[in-house]
Amino acid sequence: MTISAAVPSFREGEDVLPSRQARLVYRSGMAESTAGVAGGFVQGNLAILPEKLAASFHRFCQLNPKPCPIIGMSDVGDPRIPSLGFDLDIRTDVPRYRVWRDGEVVEEPTDIMSHWRDDLVAFVLGCSFSFEEALIAEGLPIRHIERKVRVPMYRTNIACKPSGPFSGPMVVSMRPFRPAQAIRAVQITSRFPSVHGAPVHLSHPHSIGIADIARPDYGNAVPVAPDEIPVFWACGVTPQAVIAAAKVPFAITHAPGLMLVTDLHNKDLAVL
Amino acid sequence: MTISAAVPSFREGEDVLPSRQARLVYRSGMAESTAGVAGGFVQGNLAILPEKLAASFHRFCQLNPKPCPIIGMSDVGDPRIPSLGFDLDIRTDVPRYRVWRDGEVVEEPTDIMSHWRDDLVAFVLGCSFSFEEALIAEGLPIRHIERKVRVPMYRTNIACKPSGPFSGPMVVSMRPFRPAQAIRAVQITSRFPSVHGAPVHLSHPHSIGIADIARPDYGNAVPVAPDEIPVFWACGVTPQAVIAAAKVPFAITHAPGLMLVTDLHNKDLAVL
């Protein structure tokens, strides 16, 4: 079912941004991957924490901007984030959520109306969908997209800088490229620091603690050809790994791959 | 012997640029490597050709800007290049020249007064000394500089785009870096397209036709540690290799490592 079919009140040509259109569909209860939805618009990772932990987490993001680039956050107890989207309601507009208690996922609802509290703060972090769009626009092939699987992700031995209860290893995503493509990919993604920016590593998986490139910790394996090198970017799964490791009493995130679609344009994130 | 000692008429604090001071020393006959001379000033590769071949060579450079980035050229028969230096005389100001006949070096004089002709055109091409200065300024170690040897250079299987008699493989220089340093080196050198710019290749020497990284075709071998990758930049030796391969009746170049010191500032070559 397409998004416009899902909400019959939207007609072609109507003056509603595709991003808002998508959010309204998810608000109505549809829960599927946001990959490829509302092309050109920024999608974000979500982390919601009680005010008591929010300052520590905010500082964690500030200390680790490559895995945790903040593109927006709410006021305490306020479910709106106007800087990210007109009429955006963080309690309903993500297709699927994960509710965490003591570091475990206890529920995966399609809205969090019943979980919302006056002391919650929502953080929205940049996501690799934005830089992948820029790579594709420059003609670089993205292996996991070609194969219609999730990007392979790995826990590394690169330690995030700790803040309060939040600490742990950086998670990275991997895309294989031929060397000249890898150099171009460094250049392109360097322009987008708010969506993970330049790679953190390339070649030599063992150097960052990856024992077997064929066995990712999250997502799906993709082959790396003999004339290619694996290129590794800091990944927005890092905060979920850290929230799990910190065993915080209560947190909410998006479900992997089912992101918040914002009204920001990917191209506006380019710093040069 | 230092340059200021070599020309006693220069006193400390005198209002002569260090670059011009160096050229005057070389003009007086001193012939030694320009590595480390006149820090901060751009040094260039030299290629001088008869007018009849100059248009083809100019087009060759235009077609192959990574190995052959033109930073200045003379008028036909005019030994001055005012855009590159006050009082610069291309016949005397390079420490040592190579005179080529039919693709062979026949002489290595310290000036070319007796070879100069009214139909000659001088091309000055950017040199890696400029981007190495930028890499060092960012704290990246340059192996061959640490070891006080010449950078290792290799003929590749990357074909230059041909123009008239000029064709042949691209020559590359190699610097080993740890992966995160290599990523930073891509970013830094991307800012300097007029001095070879971003690397053309990294890792996988065989992919570009390098059989043995320990046996460079020019310069000296340097070790690549197990946790490092070789990073390859297009090299200003390419035009000399191409002039040799084309067996042109007459050409003049600089002797490798003994470059033209210009009054341009390296930092002014940064495009961003």
Question: Notable features of this structure?
Answer:
homodimer; alpha+beta; PSTPO5379-like; PSTPO5379-like fold; 7 helices; 11 strands; 24% strand; globular
What's the quick description here?
Two copies of one chain form a homodimer. The first copy, chain A, contains seven helices and eleven strands.
Question: Can you describe what's shown?
Answer:
Two copies of one chain form a homodimer. With 272 residues, chain A is of the alpha+beta class. Chain A folds into two domains: 3-127 and 246-269, PSTPO5379-like; 129-239, PSTPO5379-like domain (PSTPO5379-like fold). In chain A, 23% of the residues lie in helices and 24% in strands. In chain A, strand 3 (97-101) and strand 4 (104-107) form a beta hairpin. The termini of chain A are far apart. At the A-B interface, helix 6 and strand 8 of A face helix 6 and strand 8 of B.
Report the major sheet of chain A: 7 strands, antiparallel
Helical amount of chain A = 10-25%
Mean pLDDT of chain A: 94
Instruction: Supply the CATH superfamily name of the largest domain in chain A.
Output: PSTPO5379-like
Order of helices and strands of chain A: HHEHEEEEHHEEHEEHEE
User: Pairing-aware structural class of the strands and helices of chain A?
Assistant: alpha+beta
| CATH domain fold name of the largest domain in chain A | PSTPO5379-like
Number of helices of chain A: 7
Oligomer: homodimer
Shape of chain A: globular
Number of strands of chain A: 11
Number of domains of chain A: 2
CATH architecture of the largest domain in chain A: 3-Layer(aba) Sandwich
- The unreliable regions of chain A are none
User: How widely separated are the two ends of chain A?
Assistant: 38 Å
CATH class descriptor of the largest domain in chain A? Alpha Beta
Q: Which strand-content bin applies to the residues of chain A?
A: 15-25%
